[in-house]
Structure formats: C-alpha cells, structure tokens
Amino acid sequence: MTRVAFGSGIYLLTSLAAGALSLGAAAQPPVFNAAGELERPADSREWVYVTTGLDMFYGPTANATRGERGSVFTNVFVTPAAYREFMRSGTWPDKTMFILEARRAETGASIDNAGKSQGELLAIESAVKDVARFRANEGSNGWGYFTFDGPNGLKDSARVLPTSASCYQCHAANTAVDNTFVQFYPTLFEVAKRLGTVKPTYDPAHKL
Ligand code: HEC
C-alpha cells in the first residue's frame, strides 16, 4: 500500500475544492445580470493584451481637448477564448468581449525625465459580440457597445448604448475586421491579412 504524506493529501483536497469553486463561480464573460446589464469584469487585466493607443484622435479638426486633459493611453484587452479563435480563423466568435481602458499619461514620474508612463484610470468601455442579443438593433452588426464611465462614477454594470451612440457608426464604417479596429492591432492584423478576413471596404488611406 502506498503511503501518502498527510500534507500532500490536504493539498490535493484543497486544490480540488478550489478548482470546483472557480468552475462554479466564474461564469465566462460576457456576463449579463438579471437587469440585462453587462457586468464589468474584475479580471480583464488577465485577458489577452491587444494594444495600447496614445493620443489617438479621429476627425477633421485638431485634437482640441488634448491641451486640457493631457495625453491619454488606451489599453485594449480581449477575452482569451476569442483571441484563440481569432488566431485560428481571423474572425471573432460570438461572445467575444473587449475592454478598452483609458489612462492619463504622466511625464516625469519617478526616475523618468522625458517620456510618458501610464497613470490614473479615466474610463472603461466595452464591446460585446452577441448576435442573438443585438442583431435586432439596426446598425449594430450584432455588437453592443457599453461604457462603465470613470473612477468615481465607475459602474459595476452598464446597459447597452443605443445604436444612436457614435460608437456604432464609427466602428461599422472604419474597421478592418468585423466591427473591430484590427488595423491598429499589429499581431492580429498580420493574422487577418494572412487568412483573408480583412473587409474589402477597409481603405487604409481613408480619413474621417
Ligand atoms: C470616431 C471613431 C470612434 C468612435 C466614435 C468610437 N470608437 Fe471605439 N475605437 C476607435 C478606434 C480607432 C479604436 C482603436 C483604439 C486603439 O487602437 O487603441 C477603438 C477601439 C475600441 C474598442 C476596442 C475593440 C475594437 O472594437 O477594436 C472598444 C471596446 C471601443 N472602441 C469602444 C467604443 C465605445 C463604447 C464607443 C462609444 C461610446 C466608441 N468606441 C466610439 C474608434 C472609435
């Protein structure tokens, strides 16, 4: 008969219990609550990191607000299962969820003298592909857009924005793959080009 050390037996039991717990408790995002609102994920920093934009501004005028608010970084994360499917097929599966996190840029923080580093959280936004849920919303392309607002008013859940919100039009008209700005996500753009999933309407020379 094999002698199992007491300590490792306890370890096995606790890790089994922890595994069962996390399986039961952690529903995969996107999670919609009873009120039909999208829950803000607590772990989006453990998703796949897509890109960081710095001071991106789209439109005919100069970035007028930049002086007042300083520079802003936008960090994009996507659910791991959706990322794996994109790497395989160059397309986003149903239930893909993105988080876009805006952070104020700091200059001269700590030992830095001249560059920009990421500081305070400004806002969290999200996009979810859920065709059954959103396809009836004309102009949605099966996507829903959400804002969880900023730090003090940071919301735990958010109702889908109406398709009159600017998000829908800009994301439908100017994106390289599906409703997403894959042209700005270098590693993903390579995959989409290789697999031929870049939209024929995508024009790299087009400006707003
Ligand atoms: C005028 C165009 C424009 C508008 C309006 C706009 N976005 Fe975007 N959005 C972008 C661009 C460009 C990116 C790529 C950002 C980057 O590379 O950092 C982006 C990226 C995103 C992403 C990351 C996933 C993706 O689709 O590529 C989310 C989530 C997002 N936007 C949400 C929103 C929400 C919510 C709104 C409305 C409240 C909105 N956006 C309005 C241009 C726009």
Report the top-level CATH class of the domain at 27-162.
Alpha Beta
User: Would you tell me the structural class of the helices and strands?
Assistant: alpha+beta
- Broad shape: globular
CATH topology of the domain at 27-162, which one? Answer: Chalcone isomerase
How helical, in percent, are the residues? Answer: 25-40%
Strand order of the largest sheet: 2-3-4-5-6
Output the number of helix runs.
6
Order of helices and strands: HEEHEHEEHEEHH
> What's the pLDDT, averaged over the residues?
88
Please outline what is shown here:
It contains six helices and seven strands; from the N terminus they run H-E-E-H-E-H-E-E-H-E-E-H-H. The chain has 208 residues and is α+β, with helices and mostly antiparallel strands.
Helix-strand layout with pairing:
Blueprint: H1 6-25, E1 38-39, E2 48-54, H2 66-69, E3 72-78, H3 80-89, E4 97-106, E5 117-129, H4 131-134, E6 143-147, E7 157-158, H5 166-174, H6 186-195
Helix pairs in contact: 3-6
Bound molecules: heme C.
Heme C (HEC) binds next to strand 2, strand 3, strand 4, strand 5 and strand 6.
